[in-house]
Amino acid sequence: MELETSSSIISKYSTNRAVTLHTYEAFKYHWFVWQFCGLKYPKNHNWKLLYTVYAIILNATVTLFFPLTLIVNCFLSENFTELCENLYITITDVICNLKFLNVFIVRKKLLAVKDILDRLDTRAKTDDEIHALRMGIRSAHKCFCIFAIMFGCAIITSQLVVYLSSERTLMYPAWLPLNWKTSYRDFLIAHSYQVYGLTVQAIQDLGNDTYPQAYLRILCAHIEALSLRISKLGNKKGMNSKEVNKELIECIKDHQIIIELHKTIQQIISTACLAQFMCTGLAQCTIGVYMLYVGLDFSKLLNIVIFFTAVTFEIFILCHFGDQLCQRAEQLTVAIYSCNWMDQNKKFKQALLLLLKRSQRPLVIMAGDLIPLKLPTFVRVMKTAYSTFAVLSEVK
């Protein structure tokens, strides 16, 4: 059987576009995660009471108690070595819970985006526009899967601390009301709780850290689809000037919807992105302190390497998609110049000039209204982390 060409695949998708094309599908994995974490009621209302009880128990035993065990242990540290050993995971876990709280606060806005995306989805009519949107959905799903693998590896490698240690120890130093150092039964209970808590926290953090990238990627996809739509204005055969003008007006309306989508996404992910920058910076610094003053054994090395890679990759992806958003906005301006505006009437040119002026406004996502999500920002964060590490090395 011959392989299908990319154009035939796109054509097949466009045939059923009205039924299958929903860019909100890019976030379906995130809503599975949030439903697991107790943030979204199931569709069957008969389970509402049981789900409420489940959500309360899950968040009381993990979201509240798990970071508390780490924080209390920090205060009970008897020396600087013990403090360093616990600090990097404590800071990350606390910020993870703050990001989860932010998702709880903005969850209604996360759902409201669906109506905006549905309006834009109906405008994608040609094969290349549909392909651009489908690539956005696939990219968002791929990003989620990559992070899921990273978080899974972090959970697995954290077990090495327990199994490779010469003495009885927990995955992460924590205060627990159990005598786990002398009692094997208490140790099994403590270890099982940490596995349970770490797994739930990792799933929560998976949703927290991947939804900003997904929303940015879908925004980029819709800007790309609009650029393709505008570049074809005046080039379609069989269309009179009235029909071309009408299509331009529709494109202007699409651009207004995209600006509305940009503002909504800015409100949704601004706090989460700022928290992520703080988390990455603090985690990198505390890991550096830990390596300098405590050192590493093989049982902890792999877990810390994966942990460091994950928190660094999180802000890289954010800055990457933020940079892509700026590039897509520039492509939109190029598309306006590329359409066949010279052969159109005065009314078309006036409307196009209005669209051109609006398109020149920068579409930049700001983390906490302070830090632009761009690749140069990622470079500055890495330079700052390295400079801090170098200063700590000299102090030692």
Characterization of the model:
The chain has a two-stranded antiparallel ribbon with strand order 1-2. It has one domain. The chain contains eleven helices and two strands, in the order ααααααααααββα. The N terminus is likely disordered. With 396 residues, the chain is mainly α. The protein is 78% helix and 1% strand.
The count of β-strands is 2
What's the helix-strand series?
A: HHHHHHHHHHEEH
The structure class reads: mainly alpha
What's the main sheet like?
2 strands, antiparallel
Strand % is: under 5%
Provide tags for this entry.
single chain, 396 residues, mainly alpha, two-stranded antiparallel ribbon, 2 strands, 78% helix, 1% strand, elongated
